[in-house]
Write a structure and sequence with these properties.
membrane; single chain; OxRdtase_Mopterin-bd_sf; Sulfite Oxidase, Chain A, domain 2; five-stranded mixed β-sheet; alpha+beta; 21 strands; Molybdopterin-dependent oxidoreductase; 13 helices; Immunoglobulin-like; transmembrane helix
Length: 544
């Protein structure tokens, strides 16, 4: 109130705006309750699918390839949280709109909640792992809770406005200022309005807890216990010991082996599939003489090998970090194909994931490379869930989009006309990893002190190995870097070059030469359709 008894501008908020905001808040809380309860139910019931994740998966499957590539290039491993966040933001906006609509047309708004749940159910049923009854149950529970919460909050809101001496319902049921009401009454929010806000806030908080609880209950804790109880068999062919000098241990340099929790993850799964190894099976089928199926226990009983292999994502930009090196253990692909017996015309091996993802590569690659395997372990432990537990394909020399099927459920032999998931989306049919070097030290854009310094990084060309790395500072000559001891042709190799850093701005480039004598090209190409090329180039400022 002003001293003259008139309203201040801050108090001059019309009942229409308040009513709209109240409806929007009620709708947002109702949508939160619907999503939270649906997530909790999905987490409590084995094999139930998250409706939110299912919608996100549907978005991934339907967007054009160029947009998918742009998202991976821009966001990297953050693309999945951003997409889930986008689905939630759209849900909140839809909830606000339905809440405003529900003030006068509750039945229409309730139908909107049902349609909202139906969208999630349809998306979830497109997953081959979904069960119709369970999926419908999740959707019905979510929709029912959302409608019930919306009805309750609007009833509380109406009772609060009816108790306000400054307001009264008109002939349509809408609340309008009562003739002769005073500003003093409008200043004092009624008890029921505070009750509405507390109820809406509490409902939203409980919904968030329910959603988080559903996520945590979705088999993760049990899977951790299962993985901890697994005892890996001793490989019949072990990887050799790491020679002295293979890991340079230069500060800031990528380690020889990438820790599992730091290994890059790029795939199409918004939520990591939680697969029970007791129920999991691997089919070997298609153009084979003797198709067969293995349980996890049977797979673990087969002779296994160990190999040090660098994997790279085709979306890795020059100098990027979507690449990692690990010691893998698993069953050779060649042994499984020999057991099945290949038919004439079986030229492609398609890996199929439990979530429907597919990737294909030439059968000759699986037969020629002893290290190509169905991997069950990574850096001495059972595969982490994020990297394909209980089993995945690991094939040296090929980008992951054509070879590295995680959560493997089937190996299918086909002809070359069958396309994996990424091929219709604009990526090349074959995906050999290009010879690449990366500069890790110094970091681009950083300042370094003048004097004796070091330039260091890693280089990789799986199946061919790295024979040399050269470095150029500004427009100077190419200089040979010192290479770490070789571990295996399939994994990357560290390198370094001593540098007398002089004050000023400097541009540093690097290039690698592989075991076949091929020098990394300076031709800049984008990641699509078959991987980026060009020299990694960084800029640093040297200060006195």
């Amino acid at each position: 109130m002003t001293q003259s008894g008139e309203r201040s501008p801050a108090q001059d908020i019309g009942p229409r705006a308040v009513r709209r905001s109240t409806g929007a808040v009620a709708g947002i809380a109702a949508v939160a309750a619907a999503l939270g309860m649906a997530e909790l139910v999905a987490g409590l019931i084995p094999d139930a699918r998250s409706l939110v994740v299912s919608v996100g998966d549907a978005v991934i499957d339907s967007v054009p390839g160029w947009l998918e590539r742009a998202a991976i290039s821009t966001l990297g491993s953050a693309d999945k949280p951003v997409l889930i966040g986008g689905v939630l933001v759209v849900s909140v906006l839809l909830g606000a709109a339905l809440g405003v609509l529900a003030r006068r047309r509750f039945a229409v708004a309730a139908a909107g909640f049902v349609a909202f749940a139906a969208l999630g159910v349809v998306a979830a049923l497109s997953d081959p792992r979904s069960q119709v009854f369970i999926t419908l149950l999740v959707g019905v529970v979510g929709a029912a809770v959302g409608v019930a919460v919306l009805h309750l909050l609007l009833r509380v809101a109406r009772s609060g406005q009816a108790a306000d001496p400054a307001c009264a319902p008109d002939e349509t049921g809408a609340v309008a200022p009562r003739a002769g009401s005073t500003a003093v009454a409008a200043e004092r929010p009624p008890v029921d309005r505070r009750r509405f806000l507390s109820l809406a806030g509490g409902t939203t908080a409980l919904a968030v807890l329910a959603g988080v609880g559903g996520y945590l209950l979705a088999g993760r804790e049990r899977l951790a216990e299962v993985r901890a109880a697994i005892r890996l068999p001793r490989p019949v062919r072990q990887a050799g010991p790491v020679p002295a000098g293979a890991d340079l241990e230069v500060p800031g340099l990528t380690p020889l082996f990438t820790p599992n929790e730091e290994f890059y993850r790029i795939d199409t799964a918004l939520r990591v599939p939680i697969v029970d190894p007791d129920e999991w099976q691997l089919e070997v089928r298609g153009m084979v003489d003797e198709p067969f199926t293995l349980t996890y226990a049977e797979l673990m009983e087969l002779p296994q090998i160990e190999a040090d292999i660098t994997l790279a994502c085709v979306s890795n930009e020059v100098g990027g970090d979507l690449v990692g090196n690990a010691r893998w253990q698993g069953v050779p692909l060649r042994a499984l194909l020999d057991r099945a017996g290949l038919q004439e015309g079986a030229t492609q091996l398609i890996g199929r994931s439990v979530d429907g993802f597919t990737a294909g590569f030439p059968v000759l690659t699986a037969l020629d490379l002893e290290e190509a395997m169905v991997a069950v372990a990574m850096n001495g432990e059972p595969l982490p869930a994020e990297h394909g537990f209980p089993a995945r394909l690991v094939v040296p020399g090929l980008y992951g989009y054509v070879s590295a099927t995680k959560w493997l459920s089937a190996i299918e032999l086909t002809d070359w006309d069958v396309d994996g998931y990424w091929i219709p989306r604009g990526w090349a049919k074959e995906g050999p990893i290009k010879t690449q070097a990366r500069i890790d030290v110094p970091r681009s854009g950083r300042s370094v002190p003048a004097g004796r310094a070091v330039i260091a990084g890693v280089a990789w060309a799986p199946t061919r190995g790295i024979e040399g790395v050269e470095v150029r500072v500004d427009d100077g000559p190419w200089r040979d870097a010192e290479l770490a001891e070789r571990l295996d042709v399939d994994c990357w190799r560290q390198w370094f070059l001593p540098w007398d850093a002089t004050p000023g701005r400097h541009v540093i480039a690097a290039r690698a030469t592989d075991g076949a004598g091929e020098v990394q090209t300076d031709e800049r190409t984008p990641v699509a359709p078959d991987g980026a090329s060009g020299y990694p180039i960084i800029e640093v400022r040297v200060e006195d």
